[in-house]
Specification:
The complex is a heterodimer. Chain A is 47% helix and 12% strand. A three-stranded antiparallel β-sheet of chain A has the order 1-2-3, with no helix packed on it. The longest helix of chain B has 49 residues. Classes of the chains: A alpha+beta, B mainly alpha. Chains A and B meet through helix 1, helix 2, helix 3 and helix 5 of A and helix 5, helix 9, helix 10 and helix 12 of B.
Chain lengths: 136, 481
């Protein structure tokens, strides 16, 4: 079988090292011992090598379909998080249509400027809430 | 005499911060991962410094004040697009990082090549990315040239001072990589904060009594300066919203910004970084105040000279020490993002352009090849800037709006049904051709809307149409079978 792309290995190794191992595995008289194989992902044990090697047969895009988000714990943002992050997003962009005015003047600042400063300060709050909503 | 004092301070600041960067990095063995993305090990603080270093550039430093000076309220867009960029970073940075770590991506072109499973798409993204980065580098070079011109009190006519500053930074990037850039950001941030505080607080208090009196005076002199023009007029509200949107999206899709995302240690660092950075951006309000002060103190600068506005005020009213310190801070604000851009462009050339034609050669000599590419990119940017400065200015909008055209490819890569590489590639090419056309006929607005946003809409439309057509075609073929 032709190894199309070798993208990672179990112990952090440089790509060059991995290719060398791959080459060895094809040249060895007794072939590498296959440990297990699932969803386009094979682990080998090479005689004479202390580490196990993981060789991905599939390209990253195929791999994504099979294993994305399932193998690694990552925070999933829910609808609430997108909504919370969307509020400052639309306020800073489309809200400007309504905030484009000089008055009321706040500490000398024109309203448009105070409005933008307010939303710069409020953005972290909304992002923090979005982060919290994802954690729960 | 004063130019000598100013120049010695600038030189001391540059050399001192580079030495600081070297010491901070220490003797880390340089692999491509370490050089280009800091081995994916940056925590929240280093990441914040890096992002602050990349987003607050000399363009923000000089350009924001220049816009406030020359145009007034349209300059507020700088306050608008950075929060948007951070919201986009908050939402899409972590999943991007997760995939990058899983598949060991080094550049944004790696992402496109692997996720869409097409090395040609990776090559296209890399070529466009290098082109944009070189153009953006020339902006930073222009910033350095303006600042050194101020510090030279009229004695600097040619580009030699800028050349020396640029040469220093290339050597620095060559040796210490992205980690060094992040650490130099510490010095840069401290100095830039000091400089901006001086320009935005000390100058208004000195000349107007308080920043608030500044606005009172400004309203008397320029009553229409603090609000946008309505609707579809040039620099009106429609322009403002479209510019904020396209820049907000585009800031994160620059190749060097993607490299900064990759450099994070974990997803939480990226999120915390997005939550903290808006506070840092508040200092830009002070830059705007500096521009407004300059308008009242030194009116009459036209065109590109407006970018020098508040530096001229500093130059005529304060001693050479102050000029030197602010110039040094400004130069760092150009050189820190500049070095991140050089690194990103170098890695794109080494990994995605050379790598497409000879993979084994590129992978075996990756560190050396990246370093050579860094030097080549830097030389190329400098020479093209020195020869054709005016032509490049006209092409800048292509780069600024062009970087945003990577966004559809990144956004749609998270959808449950990814479009094909072909559709993403055609969308990118069509939108870039559109941008080139608008630059050629000098058309920055179409009925008030920033052409960058129109190009982005066009991009999405093309990708969507091709994807729909190909899915229907596939279904028809399946049914026939």
């Amino acid at each position: 079988m032709i190894v199309e792309k070798a993208l990672s290995c179990s112990i952090a190794q440089s790509g060059q090292r991995l290719r060398q191992l791959e080459h060895e595995s094809t040249c060895l008289e007794d072939p590498a011992i296959q440990l297990f194989n699932f969803a386009g992902h094979t682990e080998y044990w090479l005689p004479g090598q202390s580490e196990q090697i993981v060789i991905r047969r599939n390209s990253a895009s195929q791999n994504l379909m099979n294993r994305d988000n399932s193998s690694q714990p990552g925070k999933r943002l829910g609808f609430a998080a997108y909504l919370l992050a969307g509020i400052p997003f639309f306020a800073v962009s489309f809200g400007v249509f309504f905030a484009n005015r000089d008055e009321p003047v706040l500490f000398g600042f024109p309203f448009l400027l105070s409005y933008l400063i307010f939303w710069i300060c409020a953005t972290p709050l909304f992002l923090w809430l979005a982060d919290r909503s994802a954690r729960q | 005499m004063s130019s000598l004092v100013a120049f010695s301070i600038v030189a001391a600041i540059l050399l001192g911060s580079i030495a600081f960067g070297f010491l901070a990095v220490g003797k880390i063995k340089m692999s491509p991962q370490e050089l280009v993305i800091g081995n994916r090990s940056f925590g929240t603080i280093l990441l914040c410094l890096l992002f602050a270093g990349e987003t607050i550039t000399s363009f923000t430093f000089l350009g924001a004040a220049g816009w406030a000076y020359a145009k007034g309220a349209p300059a507020f867009y700088i306050l608008g697009y950075l929060p948007l960029a951070l919201i986009v970073l908050f939402l899409f940075g972590p999943p991007l990082w997760r995939r990058a770590r899983k598949f060991n991506f080094l550049t944004n072109a790696d992402y496109f090549a692997s996720i869409y499973d097409s090395r040609s798409l990776g090559l296209l993204v890399a070529v466009c990315g290098v082109f944009f980065l070189v153009l953006y580098l020339t902006v930073q070079l222009t910033g350095i040239q303006i600042l050194l011109g101020i510090a030279g009190y009229g004695s600097v006519k040619d580009v030699s001072a800028g050349a020396i500053a640029f040469f220093l930074i290339v050597v620095f990037v060559f040796l210490s990589g992205l980690r060094g850039v992040a650490w130099v950001s510490v010095v840069k941030d401290v100095l830039v904060l000091g400089a901006i505080f001086f320009a935005g607080v000390v100058i208004p208090i000195h000349f107007f009594g308080s920043p608030l009196h500044l606005f009172t005076k400004l309203r008397e002199a320029h009553p229409d300066w603090l609000t946008l023009r309505s609707g579809t007029m040039p620099n009106g509200t429609v322009w403002f919203v479209s510019t904020v949107l396209v820049n907000g999206v585009g800031t994160i899709t620059w190749p060097h910004a993607v490299a900064a995302i990759y450099s994070a240690k974990d997803e939480a660092s990226i999120r915390r970084n997005a939550m903290l950075l808006p506070f840092y951006q508040l200092i830009l309000v002070l830059v705007l105040l500096a521009g407004f002060s300059a308008l009242l103190l030194a009116p009459g600068l036209k065109g590109d000279d407006a970018d020098q506005s508040f530096m001229r005020v500093v130059q005529t009213n304060y001693s050479a020490w102050v000029v030197g310190a602010i110039t040094g801070a400004g130069c760092l604000a150009a050189l820190v993002p500049g070095s991140a851009m050089i690194l990103a462009a170098g890695s794109l050339i080494a990994k995605n352009i050379v790598g497409t034609f000879s993979q084994s050669f590129a992978e075996q000599n990756q560190t050396a090849l990246t370093r050579i590419s860094i030097v080549v990119v830097a030389m190329f940017a400098f020479v093209s800037w020195a020869i054709a400065r005016t032509t490049l200015v006209g092409m800048l909008l292509i780069a600024a709006n062009g970087a945003a055209q990577f966004f559809p490819g990144i956004l749609l890569s998270f959808s449950s049904r990814r479009p094909s590489a072909l559709s993403i590639g055609i969308g990118l090419v069509v939108s870039l051709l559109f941008l080139c056309w608008t630059a050629a006929v000098k058309l920055p607005l179409i009925s008030g809307v920033n052409v960058g946003l129109l190009a982005l809409v066009l991009n999405f439309a093309v990708v969507g149409l091709i994807a729909l057509a190909s899915w229907n075609f596939e279904r028809a073929m399946n049914e026939r079978e």
